[in-house]
Amino acid sequence: MTFTAYYVTPGGDLKRNLIEAGMSAAFESRQGLLWVDVSGATEADAPFLERNFHFHHLAIEDSVASRIHPPKIDDLGSYLFLIVHGINPVSVAEMPETAELALFLGSHFVVSVHRTPLHCIEQVKRIVENDGTVMKHGADFLAHALIDVLIDNILPTIDTMTDMSEAVEEETIRNPQQSVLESVLKLKRSTLKIHRVIAPQREILNRLSRGEFSIIKEEARIYYRDVYDHLIRIEDFIQYIRDSADNALDTYMSSVANRQNEVMKVLSMLAAIFMPLTLIAGIYGMNFEHMPELTWSWGYFAVLGLMAVVVILAIIWFWTRKWISFRRR
Fold it and tell me: How far apart are CA 57 and CA 36, in angstroms?
């Protein structure tokens, strides 16, 4: 575990990289604004949070546990406990991975806890290091900045998935192969995975923006409403991608069915052509003694000619029925 602590004094001065004693003193003073970011948290770091902040042990357990928790918000009296999710940047070929961020939000402090490095945390740290403005507006504005950047970082992945869905749709029409089916199914699983964490967060941001919690000041609620609108847009994009994947899957299944029908059509025509030939060969393959054609000098060639006539007539009949075509595609 590593932690970074920033403290804005009541006079507006920014103090950086506080040690544990200074961080604890700033928290106990209940003045100014303290932001502590705990990165790489594990279950062994629970005593650190309990010792310095006296948070509820259930909230601490959820923030440091290795298992993934669904997004949620708990009102614990003097502070709020939130779990929100973003997406870790991964390669295009991989499934998107959700990134969990736990926030303890009080009137004079914000404590962020996460197991993996998060781009949103580093981005807000850079803003704080520059001028500290985001912290001088209060804890609710700082929490908004963290959540806003976390949600905005989902959009590049959504854009990549949108491009993939369009490419998969085109490939499904042009060349419906097994690899295309795997891409479609992977896309559907990705959208489902993102939807599972986005849908609950929409309700969380809605509650934060409508004045349900006194910690969120009235002037900050409009900013949470803006994040809520971003989640609505992301949901719309996910629905579009899901619909595209469903269309691509339907197209793939239709293409496979059409190809199977073409194969069965060809096999049926071959069977229809060779069944009369089999009948003729079967008749003249019998071993009866009194078969007049067996004594003909040209009997063998006559039978072959009869077979050729049958084949030609069958092909002409199929052509008149438009079952086969001699035109080049």
Answer: 18
Is the pLDDT at 328 greater than 60? The verdict is no
CATH of the domain at 175: 3.30.460.20
Query: Does 215 score more than 80 pLDDT?
Result: yes
Helix (H, G, I), strand (E, B) or coil at 37: strand
User: Residue 100: CB partners within 8 Å, gap ≥ 6?
Assistant: 68, 69, 83, 84, 85, 114, 115
Which ranges constitute the DSSP H helices of the chain?
Answer: 20-29, 46-53, 57-64, 119-130, 133-136, 139-152, 154-174, 178-209, 218-283, 299-320
Q: State whether 105 and 196 are in the same domain.
A: yes
Q: Which two tokens stand for residue 279?
A: 């009948």
For residue 114, which of 275, 2, 265 has the smallest C-alpha distance? 2
Residues 67, 167, single domain; the answer is yes
Give the mean model confidence (pLDDT) for residues 163-182. Answer: 79
User: Do the beta carbons of residue 137 and residue 168 sit within 8 Å?
Assistant: no
3-class DSSP state for residue 24? helix
d(CA 144, CA 142): 5
Which of 17-31, 189-203, 287-301 has the weakest average pLDDT?
Answer: 287-301
Q: What's the confidence (pLDDT) of residue 133?
A: 80
In 3D space, the residue among 2, 194, 185 whose CA is nearest the CA of residue 88 turns out to be 194
Residue 119 domain-assigned (yes or no)? yes
CA distances from 66 to 50, 62, 94, 147, 154 (A): 18, 9, 22, 21, 22
Parent domain of 219: 2-254
**Cα–Cα distance for residue pair 89/183, rounded to 1 Å:** 19
Average per-residue pLDDT for the chain: 85
Select from 119, 102, 116, 112 the least CA-distant residue to 157: 119
Q: What is the pLDDT of residue 93?
A: 46
User: What pLDDT, in 10s, does the model give residues 124-145?
Assistant: 998 888 877 888 889 999 999 9
Q: 0.90 cut: is pTM over it?
A: no
Tokens of 11: 């006079």
Q: Convert the pLDDT of each residue in 61-78 to its tens digit.
A: 999 988 888 899 999 988
